[in-house]
Design goal:
The chain has about 375 residues and is an alpha+beta fold. The chain is built from nine helices and 15 strands. The chain has helices at about 5-10, 20-30, 45-55, 60-70, 95-105, 135-140, 280-285, 345-360, 365-380; strands spanning about 130-135, 145-155, 170, 180-185, 190-195, 200-205, 215-225, 235-240, 255-260, 265-270, 275-280, 290-295, 300-305, 315, 335-340.
Length: about 375
């Protein structure tokens, strides 16, 4: 079967410039790539045909021979060109040719932005992290905080372009905007980042004096942050576009604020619930009474202590805990009693306690039960 005209394969006119041929190749390669045509069994052969055509027409010597002699200029289709240099087989330089269209085919999936010459001239700024400590009271009520963030911001004199006066960068003359250069080493073609533009694909003729061509400068910014009620340690707040400025006009990154809630002197937190350990006297625990306890909103609550309460007894105050971060109600506050043993007793107090102890042998059921079990244990051990 006779080969189709290479210009026809690419959909380009005879006499098309190198850039026009390249554009036509990219269009056809994207259209016919097998990964995008899984339902077309002919797509792979057609894609190879497009690659073969471009391999000839992108080379000035091969193109000149083809324009004069057509397919007859090559022995075996892609062999020795008359008066030219040896060519390569249809798949011989596939990787080299395909790399020209790789970014067009997959750039969107890689999250890149393409600029002139198929290479991104602008780069997105880095995301930043800021650790913010708040009190438990602030986490309960929510608060507006102002933070100072050291970061890179867009350079004002060049408007982020990196060029003096905000002028547009020019295509790199070394790599023709590709951001990479190729060198032949024996049988291999080695591809490296362009040393002139450092892979950007563009250069700046007159760099901005303030930012030295970077398009951004270091500066501390004051930002107002809304801390919602109910935040916990580890809560992350994202401020879109408040991160580091992009390079040469690229979009800014994001700022992530990580919350740390400081420990409280009175309350301990577990999710939306609060715990408060309240000491009570022996007399109050034995006889019963009332204690006044604080609440996280700054208020007070009176709690009844039942007679005969022991250390560790808990009582619940409904809806006196922390609010849920995204709605869903408010937690509770749990009061835990701690029966306090008196210290620094006077002689009279000690005497009264000894007298009370003699009179209260039948008033300590837990102690009586424990020592009864201990006695049984010892008897068993003695055999």
């Amino acid at each position: 079967m006779a080969k189709r005209d290479y210009y026809e394969v690419l959909g380009a006119a005879r006499g098309a410039s190198a850039e026009e041929l390249k554009k036509a190749y990219r269009t056809k390669a994207k259209e016919l790539h097998p990964d995008r045509n899984s339902d077309n069994p002919k797509a792979e052969d057609q894609f190879k045909e497009v690659n073969e055509a471009y391999e000839v027409l992108k080379d000035a010597d091969k193109k000149a021979a083809y324009d004069r002699y057509g397919h007859a200029a090559f022995d075996g289709g892609m062999g020795q060109a008359r008066g030219g240099r040896p060519g390569q087989g249809g798949n011989g330089d596939f990787a080299s040719a395909f790399s020209d269209v790789f970014e067009d085919l997959f750039g969107d999936f890689m999250g890149g932005q393409r600029g002139g010459g198929g290479r991104s001239r602008a780069q997105r700024g880095s995301d930043l992290r800021y650790n913010l400590r708040v009190s438990l009271e602030e986490a309960f009520a929510g608060i507006q905080k102002t933070i100072n963030v050291p970061a890179s911001v867009a350079c004002e004199p060049c408007r982020g372009s990196g060029a003096e006066g905000g002028a547009e960068p020019i295509t790199c003359p070394t790599c023709s905007g590709m951001g990479k250069v190729r060198a032949q080493q024996g049988f291999f073609t080695v591809e490296r980042t362009c040393p002139t533009c450092n892979g950007m694909g563009q250069t700046i003729k007159n760099p901005c004096k303030k930012c030295a061509g970077a398009g951004r400068v270091e500066q501390e910014r004051a930002l107002s942050v809304n801390i919602p009620a109910g935040v916990e340690t580890g809560t992350r707040i994202r401020l879109a576009g408040e991160g580091e400025a992009g390079l040469r006009g690229g979009p800014a990154g994001d700022l992530y604020i990580f919350i740390e809630v400081r420990e409280h002197a009175i309350f301990q937190r577990e999710g939306v619930h609060l715990f408060c350990r309240v000491p009570v006297t022996m007399a109050t625990a034995a006889l019963g009474g009332e204690v006044e306890v604080p609440t996280i909103d700054g208020g007070k609550s009176r709690v009844k202590v039942p007679g005969g309460s022991q250390t560790g007894k808990q009582m619940r105050l409904r809806s006196k805990g922390m609010p849920a971060l995204r709605g869903g109600g408010v937690g509770d506050m749990l009061i835990e009693l701690a029966v306090e043993t008196p210290v620094n007793l006077t002689s009279r107090q000690k005497e009264m306690l000894r007298e009370f102890e003699k009179m209260s042998e039948d008033n300590n059921p837990e102690g009586r039960s424990f020592f009864s079990k201990v006695k049984t244990f010892w008897d068993v051990m003695k055999g």
